[in-house]
């Protein structure tokens, strides 16, 4: 009755205004299978191990090894201890998934993925990609924790493990390539908190063998758990970003596996209703092609960036440039660099506020300071793990150099890891000028670490908490991962 009454009322009004029924446009939702979101879910559910090329397998195994190594040394940090204590004191014991660097502790899968993610980023030593994010730390802890949770009779094979890991990396890369803004050093959201939960959810959905609809829902659930501001960079809270990305992505996949649903259009550009576009103002998504149509993984096109010392990636350019000046100074001086030699230090670097820190007061600020890393390399010839200890940060000679630093931001040096450079110009007391420049540091995806260098880094990190024999077994387990019937051999080395 109410509908009939309203209908009789509306029609005369429409006629009076000259509105014809044929002129009314009916908005239609796209068919579910035609959406960007659905294409991502389909990709996750249909991808198979045979779609991984030898190049992708090799590069992803290097990422797994490096990520485990930085997680193990990260388990010695204060922020990791705080996160672990919180999980142990606030949650009931759940002896399921292993924890980096703690042979006698296990946690629930979600908490283990959280603390291991915190460990991975606690020293800012983890891998970095372009567009800028830290992809492995958001994915590997979740895949490890979920593999621990699975019964012995259903452990994933090494290839299935690597497939899930690569799916998590791929989804992050694809999402970031939908935005030009994402290609630059971030200003608003920390990228691992945006794409990291999505990558973790995708990897876990693949490992759980979720269907395409469940996989899409896992991504949509993860989108509701994503995002953290850049203001917490260079603080103890920044490592929580990676821990939460790993944990919340795993939770999203587990919730989807139980039937929880979310927006079927979360990755699509829908006018007036922000989905994933909330994070990037210029977001322009494209469907992800089916793996059966010859999909090429982004990791095949672009290698990963690995850090030689634990600091923000941008620091590696100025450190290498300053190290080259150090060699010149040692050659003309008394065999070591003294602040008394130096009148002025000019750094030509990209404009990026959160890594412009003239006088850092903590290890976390020092890891995000152009000035600190340039002066450390100028003084010592290199930057190392030990460079960020309280004693090294407070050295009088280092403080003296910091007081002489100026910054310039040339227009041809954008805040973009793919095209930026670092230049260091030192004016000596006598008036001589020494210059060093780095366009591509050793470890960048255009100049990747050799396997020998990567393993040296892993050994140096892992041997801080593990005996050397176990470290070598870990190297072996990762190297043969794609040939293992199940991943228990790798998991046992971490236990």
Automatic annotation (TrEMBL):
Reaction catalysed by this chain?
A: cis-aconitate + H(+) = itaconate + CO2
Q: Pinpoint the MmgE/PrpD N-terminal domain residues.
A: 40-275
What are the UniProt keywords, alphabetically?
Antimicrobial, Immunity, Inflammatory response, Innate immunity, Lyase, Mitochondrion
- Kindly report, in one word, the top-level EC class recorded for this enzyme: lyase
Where does the protein principally reside? mitochondrion
Task: Spell out where the chain crosses the membrane.
Answer: none
Localization in the cell: Mitochondrion
Its EC number(s): 4.1.1.6
Q: Which GO terms describe its cellular component?
A: mitochondrion
* UniProt-recorded Gene Ontology molecular function terms: aconitate decarboxylase activity; protein homodimerization activity
MmgE/PrpD C-terminal domain location is 309-482
Q: What GO biological process terms does the UniProt entry carry, in alphabetical order?
A: inflammatory response; innate immune response; positive regulation of antimicrobial humoral response; tolerance induction to lipopolysaccharide
Q: Has the keyword Lyase been applied to this entry?
A: yes
Keyword presence, Lyase: yes
Q: How does it assemble?
A: Homodimer.
Q: What does this protein do?
A: Cis-aconitate decarboxylase that catalyzes production of itaconate and is involved in the inhibition of the inflammatory response. Acts as a negative regulator of the Toll-like receptors (TLRs)-mediated inflammatory innate response by stimulating the tumor necrosis factor alpha-induced protein TNFAIP3 expression via reactive oxygen species (ROS) in LPS-tolerized macrophages.
Family of this protein: Belongs to the PrpD family.
UniProt protein name: Cis-aconitate decarboxylase
Q: Which organism is it from?
A: Poecilia formosa (Amazon molly)
Q: What is the lineage of its organism?
A: Eukaryota, Metazoa, Chordata, Craniata, Vertebrata
């Amino acid at each position: 009755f109410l509908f009939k009454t309203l209908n009789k009322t509306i029609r005369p009004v429409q006629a009076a205004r000259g509105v014809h029924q044929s002129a009314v446009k009916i908005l239609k939702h796209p068919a579910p299978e035609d959406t960007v979101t659905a294409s991502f879910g389909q990709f996750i559910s249909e991808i198979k191990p045979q779609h991984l090329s030898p190049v992708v397998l090799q590069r992803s195994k290097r990422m797994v090894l490096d990520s485990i190594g930085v997680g193990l040394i990260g388990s010695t940090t204060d922020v990791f201890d705080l996160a672990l204590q919180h999980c142990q004191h606030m949650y009931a014991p759940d002896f399921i998934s292993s924890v980096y660097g703690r042979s006698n502790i296990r946690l629930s899968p979600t908490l283990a993925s959280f603390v291991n993610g915190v460990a991975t980023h606690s020293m800012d030593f983890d891998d970095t990609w372009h567009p800028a994010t830290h992809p492995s730390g958001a994915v590997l802890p979740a895949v490890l924790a979920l593999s621990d949770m699975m019964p012995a009779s259903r452990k994933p094979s090494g290839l299935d493990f690597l497939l899930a890991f690569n799916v998590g990396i791929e989804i992050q890369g694809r999402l970031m390539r939908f935005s030009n803004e994402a290609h630059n050093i971030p200003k608003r959201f920390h990228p691992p908190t945006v794409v990291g939960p999505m990558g973790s959810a995708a990897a876990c959905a693949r490992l759980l063998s979720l269907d395409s609809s469940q996989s899409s829902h896992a991504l949509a659930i993860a989108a509701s758990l994503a995002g953290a501001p850049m203001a917490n960079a260079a603080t103890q809270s920044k490592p929580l970003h990676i821990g939460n990305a790993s944990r919340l992505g795993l939770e999203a996949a587990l919730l989807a596996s139980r039937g929880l649903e979310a927006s079927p259009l979360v990755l699509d550009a829908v006018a007036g209703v922000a989905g994933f576009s909330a994070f990037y103002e210029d977001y322009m998504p494209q469907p992800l092609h089916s793996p059966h149509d010859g999909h090429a993984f982004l990791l095949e096109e672009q290698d990963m960036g690995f850090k030689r010392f634990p600091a923000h990636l941008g620091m590696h350019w100025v450190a290498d440039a300053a190290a080259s000046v150090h060699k010149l100074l040692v050659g003309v001086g008394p065999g070591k660099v003294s602040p008394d030699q130096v009148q002025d230090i000019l750094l030509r670097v990209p404009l990026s506020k959160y890594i412009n820190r003239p006088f850092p007061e903590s290890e976390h600020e020092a890891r995000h300071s152009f000035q600190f890393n340039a002066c450390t390399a100028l003084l010592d010839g290199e930057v190392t793990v030990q460079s960020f200890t309280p004693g090294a940060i407070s050295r009088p000679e280092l403080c003296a150099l910091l007081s002489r630093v100026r910054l310039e931001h040339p227009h041809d040096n954008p805040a973009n890891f793919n095209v930026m450079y670092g230049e260091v110009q030192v004016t000596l007391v006598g008036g001589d000028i020494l210059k060093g420049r780095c366009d591509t540091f050793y470890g960048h995806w255009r100049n990747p670490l050799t396997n020998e260098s990567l393993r040296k880094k892993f050994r140096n990190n892992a041997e801080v908490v593990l005996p050397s024999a176990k470290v070598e077994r870990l190297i072996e387990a990762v190297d043969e991962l794609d040939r293992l019937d199940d991943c228990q051999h790798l998991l046992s080395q971490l236990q």
